[in-house]
Design goal:
Number of strands: 11
Radius of gyration: 18 Å
Number of helices: 4
Order of helices and strands: HHHEHEEEEEEEEEE
Shape: globular
Strand order of the largest sheet: 1-3-4-5-6-9
Strand content: 35-45%
Distance between the termini: 47 Å
Structural class: alpha+beta
Largest sheet: 6 strands, antiparallel
Length: 211
């Protein structure tokens, strides 16, 4: 059979597929298909995390359109031109507990997962205590689970670069002490991956949504 869709992997892991369809997906996974291994791993991480955290779901139609969009971008890319891919938000987690064992009131962290072609961008936004600033920690992995080490990362606001860093050898990057707000983020490594409207803030009764 052809590779199952990303949505089928999600539904299979949540035991929500019809029996015959679930059996076909199980057989495909058992066959060890390498072509869709990254989709299997991403689906597993998302389902596992959803079981532990409060989640705002991305609609199925949005995920399907994002996958189609990436296919069209690859199909129409031109040789010699830097390919630009706009990342699609596929999950938005709101966490009640901060990364470290410190007690705060309300939401203190946010995790955003984006898909850009064969790359996955995992963004964690955590509030700095007693401030309106946040730390932005990112992880970028391609389809072979390589971390895009050395890629330049730009944080922009109103089309102006406000901070620049690079992906470290472990595939991670960080922007520290960033004012809450809406940003765009660009990762440049052979191609340019852009996250538009990155929500670098934590919503709560005392910290409302900001622009």
């Amino acid at each position: 059979m052809s590779c199952p869709s990303f949505d089928q992997y999600i539904q299979w892991m949540r035991d929500r597929l019809p029996l015959d369809e679930a059996e076909r997906v199980s057989a495909h996974i058992a066959a060890g298909c390498r072509a869709c291994q990254s989709e299997q791993e991403l689906a597993k991480r998302i389902v596992t995390t959803v079981a532990r955290r409060q989640l705002v779901h991305a609609p199925r139609w949005l995920v399907r359109q994002a996958v189609q969009l990436f296919g069209d971008q690859v199909k129409h890319s031109r040789p010699g031109v830097i390919q630009r891919i706009v990342a699609a938000l596929i999950a938005d987690y709101r966490m009640l507990q901060p990364a470290f064992a410190v007690r705060y009131h309300g939401l203190q962290a946010r995790r955003l997962i984006y898909q850009a072609g064969h790359c996955r961008i995992d963004i964690s936004v955590s509030r700095k205590p007693n401030t309106r600033a946040v730390n932005i920690l990112g992880e970028s992995l391609d389809e072979a689970h390589n971390g895009l080490a050395g890629a330049e990362v730009q944080l922009c606001k109103n089309e102006q670069i406000v901070a620049t860093t690079h992906v470290n050898p472990f595939g991670a990057f960080m922007f520290d002490d960033v004012p809450e707000g809406i940003y765009s983020l660009k990762i440049r490594s052979g191609q340019e991956i852009e996250i538009e409207d990155l929500a670098a803030f934590i919503e709560s009764p005392t910290h409302p949504l900001v622009n």
